[in-house]
Amino acid sequence: MFKKNSFKKLFSILNKRLISRYALISILSYIYVFTALYLSVDFFEVNKTLAFIIVYGIAYIVLYGVQLKFLYSKSHDNIKLIKYFFSILFFYVCANILYNFGLFFKLNYIFSTALTIMVLMPLRLIIYTFFVYKDK
After folding, report:
1. Fewest CB within 10 angstroms: 63, 100, 116, 135, which?
2. pLDDT at 82 > cutoff 70
3. Can you tell me the distance from the alpha carbon of 4 to that of 81, in angstroms, rounded to the nearest whole number?
């Protein structure tokens, strides 16, 4: 699916801007995720799994527009939106499985969230770059 040169191109010096912007957008979105989870679970006493589903869902919706405009500098079109929807569906399911897997093993919900992020963040960059936001 991916050519060896594509991976070299992704991580080349020419794409430092892409990677640094992705990191910045991710950090900001995860500040929201951690803050919203903490407030939901510890302050408002919402179920951990329900809070995770809601908080992550909102983050993914907002990230479409942010990444489209500020990371990839692309215009919206229905094909990109459909590809984003399917990639998010995949990542949303994976995130919930990983998060609940951590809870199953009695990890703190914040730590479980952090592990989920560390696993999925690099994979999302690759999928978004080579599949979702790539022009034909």
Report:
1. 135
2. yes
3. 27
Angle at 1 between CA 136 and CA 20, to 5 degrees: 70
Tokens 């799994």 label which residue? 49
CB 97 within 8 A of CB 61: no
* Residues 134 and 80: beta-carbon distance below 8 Å: no
CB count in 10 Å sphere of residue 127: 19
Tokens of 102: 């951590």
Read off the pLDDT of residues 24-64 as tens digits, 9 standing for 90 and up: 999 999 899 999 999 999 999 999 999 989 998 899 899 99
User: Which ranges of 11-108 does DSSP label H, i.e. alpha helix?
Assistant: 16-38, 48-66, 78-104
Dihedral sign of CA atoms 105, 112, 123, 131 in order: positive
> What is the token pair recorded at 15?
């794409």
